[in-house]
Amino acid sequence: MKVAPRVIIIGGGLAGLSCALRLKEAEMPFLLLEANKHLGGRVQTDHFDEYFLDRGFQVLLTAYPEAQRLLDYSQLDLHSFQASALVRWQGKIYKISDLMRHPLDIFTSLITPIGTLEDKFKLFRLKERILRSSLPELELHPETTTLEFLKNEGFSKSMIERFFRPFFSGIFLEPALNTSSRMFELVFRMLSEGTAALPAEGIGAISRQLAKKLAPVSIRTNARVLSLQDGIINLGQAETLGAEAIVVATDGIEAARLLPDLPAPAYRSVMCLYYAALKPPWEEPIVLLNGDNRGPINNVSVLSNVCLKYAPEGHSLISVSVLGYNDEEELEFEAMVRKQLVEWFPEDAIKWRYLRTYKVKHAQPNQNPPALASLQRPVKLRQGVFVCGDHRDTASIQGALLSGRRAAEAVLADLPS
Ligand SMILES: Cc1cc2nc3c(=O)[nH]c(=O)nc-3n(C[C@H](O)[C@H](O)[C@H](O)COP(=O)(O)OP(=O)(O)OC[C@H]3O[C@@H](n4cnc5c(N)ncnc54)[C@H](O)[C@@H]3O)c2cc1C
Fold this sequence. Notes:
- By secondary structure, the chain is α+β, with helices and mostly antiparallel strands.
- Helix content is 32%, strand content 25%.
- The strands form five sheets. Strands 8-7-16-17-18-15-19 form a seven-stranded mixed β-sheet, sandwiched between helices.
- Flavin-adenine dinucleotide (FAD) is lined by residues 10-16, 33-36, 41-43, 56, 58-59, 224-225, 249-251, 254, 270, 360, 363-364, 389-390, 395-400.
């Protein structure tokens, strides 16, 4: 039997899905409206020519508490990256390892021009310290930029420039490391506690798993909300909907358009190019960083080294991340990126087959201080109007999922059952 929805959720990304799951658990009737054909928002994968192409290089940090609560990891068939990184610097490739997990790498990792010996011990001590404090304690630490935080920790310039800068700019999607130190501490902690992993059939399997738990009657796709006023949702073509509570679960820019009393956050952009190869440029499930910080490329991964299924048998899938956004013509842009790839892998990269580029303009909300002065921003705007999404929390899978649950809890607290 179809029950009239008491709650309408606008947006079916991770935040909207997480909100819907909590409402479902509480048996609160709701309707989720998603503008696009598919649910998942920024967490989607395309199956293209037998390759799984994530819409931008993205990983699940398995220690995210909210992901642990909501996801069935074994069903996702997660495969982890090694807790190490390759750094290309001045024409050579060096390996930096988490020595607690890869003690055998001690000689290759300790003696490299990527940071001093002291840096490696500082890294070890930082990990121990961050692991000792609890997640809520993060908010007690003073907030500064990531760069200032690393300088205050005493890391050398070479360690910051050749390792931290390319590694964390690939996560924060900005090269200046201006992102809040609280985000750095959170990510560093998650990487220390768990691994960076990919589901066997692409990152989009995360959204698909969540969506599968919802009844199809509670979801409408291809339903873009044009405007929202006085509790009435306008879907165009003279169709309006109302509910006791409305949860706006879109990205921050769209949320600010629908709810003009919300400020629109600035967004960071990233572009991801995919290549198919007959032979991987390296064999390990490990990311390669641009330690020179020169040229368009920030990092390169061979995704099929992490999960075989990302590529058809006998082939490899390579992803290349470039920070920022440009309107350049696709093939000209690809040629510019390939030039650097050929410089790095002269024999191989020339033969790689270009597959596709994803340009994600609104990839993550800016999280420069004081963005995370409070890790969790309010999700209730006023009576009957709620908001969730990664712009209300940390810009991450964890933040989106948690904000969705918080919004649902706020709705449940307001609506009599
Ligand atoms: C390339 C990339 C790499 C990333 N890497 C990582 C990573 O490695 N680890 C990590 O933890 N996080 C990463 N993130 C961040 C993470 O993906 C996001 O924080 C998270 O997915 C945001 O989810 P959301 O539900 O808040 O927003 P969204 O995913 O943006 O969902 C919003 C939904 O609302 C819909 N919508 C918008 N307007 C309307 C409307 N008017 N009517 C109806 N529906 C509407 C949209 O279509 C969309 O489905 C990455 C993001 C990107 C893009």
